[in-house]
Amino acid sequence: MIALITGASSGIGKALACTLGEKGYDLILVARRRAPMETLKKTLKTKVDIYAFDLAKEENVYALYEKTKDKNIDLLVNNAGFGLFGDTDETALSRELEMLDLNVRALHILTKLFLKDFVERGSGQILNVASTAGFFAGPGLNTYYATKNYVLRFTTAIYEELRRKKSNVQIGVLCPGPVETEFNQVAGGRFFMRGLCAKQVAEYAVRQMEKKKLLIIPGIGNKLCIFAARFAPYRLMLRMVYHIQRKKQTC
Prior knowledge:
Layout: E1 2-6, H1 11-22, E2 26-31, H2 34-41, E3 48-52, H3 58-68, E4 75-78, H4 93-121, E5 125-129, H5 142-164, E6 170-174, H6 183-187, H7 198-210, E7 215-216, H8 220-229, H9 234-250
């Protein structure tokens, strides 16, 4: 079995690489930074190929596909992404567009290209990494929340398309809440509550993938929050999310 993981140099991507490697998967690791992946490779017992690509650049996304499309990949994990704290009139447009390119465009392109291959072959699995943010609007972290809404809805719609075709191809979406990763350093804030361990999230995600689950939401607290939000007034949820994001920037 072979898994391709983007954003594999740290955080959830790194943890998924370790978890899948322990299960016997050969790995194709992708991230901007080669050095952390080389270090990770030394700890893994299965075959590991490394590609240092900045997937915010569209040409690199297509280059990655061309280099890996004939490797008989069994599992595609679209994990690469980042966030940016701040009010929308104050954050840098260039950085937000880079986020859209990575969080949305790269994921969309890789999902679509490998999906077509998997459907033609009659097998394969895709795991797209969204967030609990995908269920909400996110004042204070607006563009990131919007990208994760895209990932969530894009993935769940594909699931239904595949189900109606009675396809053997599986797709799921991982929606973690706060996780102890490099996200905060990149986004310019920090969580005011302790996040889940990335390894914990990865192990849970793999178990749920094996059960062919569509929505993978680690942590009972996250599940309850998403459920309760269905019954809260929309404007109240906007105010609550705003205060949560503001606290991340000031704590």
